[in-house]
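As noted in the main text, all predictions were made from sequence alone. Below is one such record, for Large ribosomal subunit protein P1.
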Amino acid sequence: MVGTDELACVYSALILQDDEIAVTPEKISTLLKAANVDVESYWPGLFARCLEGVDVKTLITNVGSGVGAAPAAGAAPAAAAAAPAAEESKKEEKKEESDVSDDDMGFGLFD
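Prediction:
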């Protein structure tokens, strides 16, 4: 379970990144003090070091870019162009699969 200290630092880092301000321990601490949130003193430095050199916006937008995820907006035209070819190959695969069934082999699922 994520603690309130961690969540407060995450939200502070997201606020800083959204405002295009460098994520530093001092800036995170300033935001936390303004929000009246007390955290252990090592959290702001830890988060600032972890996000050093990381483009947080890209990180957030690519969270769901694993297998089976929707393509990014920039990849939509390329995916749309490839869609007809993919549909044709799927149709061919289905035709090939339908040629051989369990009944042709002499047994069925419910025999």
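The CA atoms of residues 19 and 86 lie 41 Å apart. The helical segments are 4-18, 25-34, 42-50, 56-61, 76-99. These features were considered when defining construct boundaries for the mutagenesis experiments described in Section 2.9.
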